[in-house]
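[audit] Reproducing an earlier prediction to check determinism. Same input, same settings, fresh worker. If the tokens differ from the archived copy the diff job will pick it up downstream; this log only records the rerun itself.
[audit] input (217 residues):
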Amino acid sequence: MSLQQHPDVENFSEINHPLLKHKLSILRNKNTDNKQFRELVKEITMLMVYEVTNDLPLTSEHISTPLEDFDAPTLRDKHPVIVPILRAGIGMVDGFLSLLPMAKVGHVGLYRDEDTLEPVWYYFKIPTDSMQRTFYICDPMLATGGSAIATVDKLKQAGVKDIIFVCLVASPEGVTKLCNTHPDVHVYAAHLDRGLDAKSYILPGLGDAGDRLFGTH
């Protein structure tokens, strides 16, 4: 895999890999059914997790192989926390847990008011011992950036210091807003899309990821 930086924003990376791009194209197709959509979201997330976790801290543990004893690299004790933004973010959790089965999972519940386009809170739950953990916020789409910024704000108010945002597709407007508001939060996407339409939907986008995941459209 390779990373492509946003030309104007240092803390944004687009993850480039042929398999990832291929699967994302199938995901976008309006004829992709709910079952395949869910499977693809999980697969794409797994491909992304491999890249976004490349700086997880390691320690060593003395183990015995069939041939000898040696000091083997292992992840440190403070396991990461995955925080999906409900509801669409739920579709990315299994992809994370497939590679990070020891991770804890928090939940953030907010929705976008269709008139004001501002986020409205209805749920927030994270592990109590969160101060020293790395948090991965996941949401399939980064559109206006409002929900992402509200989530980062809330986590920082709770004392969280190490935050990464992971999405499948992002708009330039959302990336710029999130990255400029929180320059200490690195944002990863499988693709930086063209922009937002008049109703602030990403183009070409995925449609409504929550509806397509759960069959509610």
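[audit] rerun output stored. Observation attached for the diff report: The chain has a mean pLDDT of 91.
[audit] end
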